[in-house]
Amino acid sequence: SQQGEEDPQALSIQEGENATMNCSYKTSINNLQWYRQNSGRGLVHLILIRSNEREKHSGRLRVTLDTSKKSSSLLITASRAADTASYFCATDGGSNYKLTFGKGTLLTVNP
Amino acid sequence: DAGITQSPRHKVTETGTPVTLRCHQTENHRYMYWYRQDPGHGLRLIHYSYGVKDTDKGEVSDGYSVSRSKTEDFLLTLESATSSQTSVYFCAISEEGGGARKTQYFGPGTRLLVL
Q1: Interface contact flag, B48 A98, Cβ < 8 Å
Q2: Among all residues of chain B, which has the CA nearest to that of A52?
Q3: Hey, are the CB atoms on B43 and A43 less than 8 Å from each other?
Q4: Confidence check: pLDDT of B100 > 70
């Protein structure tokens, strides 16, 4: 079964708005990662947050992690049409080399 | 996609035929992975390798085999393709070590259609 589950499954917003996606997982983790996938392409790593971190920023991305609730959120601020993509969270479940991906959130940013 | 290539990029085959997909990396990373991506299921791990000739099963390994005779190449074989194996297949690589080294880098994918 999937370790991570993203919510919502799909999100449509206007350019300039913020987009928030959530991820819930089931077992303990060392790290949680977020990836992005443009249509027809491979996944691209966005950001990694360690289990002892609560928040991390990278450009317009902000990731939070709440290990007590086994959940994470990805916030994209001031979204652009080019941010249109699917976003996946991935957890390691304590493994040193395996990741389990969620089903993803499809974000559409309308110009 | 830099440093990772997959071949072929597209393939149409018939039920019952063998199919081999190739993943080639130039990064000298230790770990290599094969995933399949299907609507409604996200990305699921088929097999992975933690070194030359060292492989293990993932979540959906039935009907698939793998081989890794060189660091740079990881082959995925469908011994007798079935329509349920129609999917997009992604190869990924990662370095040895924890923390940020767990980041996986993905190839461009192979679209496989089994008729």
Answers
A1: yes
A2: B99
A3: yes
A4: no
